[in-house]
Amino acid sequence: MFRESPQNTEKFLWTQHVKRKMRQYQLSESRLKRVMRAFERKEEGVAPYTCAIMQGSGTKKHPKEIWLMYQIKNKRVKIISAWRYPGISPKKEVPIPEDILKELINGTIV
Question: Could you tell me the residue ranges of all domains in the chain?
Fold first, then answer.
């Protein structure tokens, strides 16, 4: 069954890469827009100036995550990639510089 590819609009730009991944992982345009509206986690993307957002799917017994990587460019959301992650992905830890960590421990930051 062939699904129609998403079209570029005033709000969204779709890359060829994400269109291929949508077919590969059986993700629809409306499903990815729902991830954009109601994400559960947001992290810095791997590529420069990108964000990655996640929304859980599946069941408690078989959890899955849908990830979406995007970039805001000229007041439009450029959707770069999307994928399904089997299971629950580990959360990234935000590195805190040592001098800031010492100040937090000593309580000197106001």
Answer: 12-89
User: What is the dotted CATH code of the domain comprising 12-89?
Assistant: 3.10.450
The 3-state secondary structure of 3-26, one letter per residue: CCCCCCCCCEEECHHHHHHHHHHC
- The overall longest dimension of the chain from CA atoms, in Å, is 62
Exposure of 17 in the CB half-sphere (CA atoms within 13 A): 9
- pLDDT surpasses 70 at 53: yes
Give residue 51's Cα distance to chain centre. Answer: 6
Best CA proximity match to 28, nearest among 45, 77, 50, 36: 36
Spatial CA neighbour of 6 closest among 29, 37, 36: 29
**3-class secondary structure, 50:** coil
62-91 pLDDT, tens digit each:
999 999 999 998 899 999 999 999 988 888
Q: Which two tokens stand for residue 37?
A: 């509206």
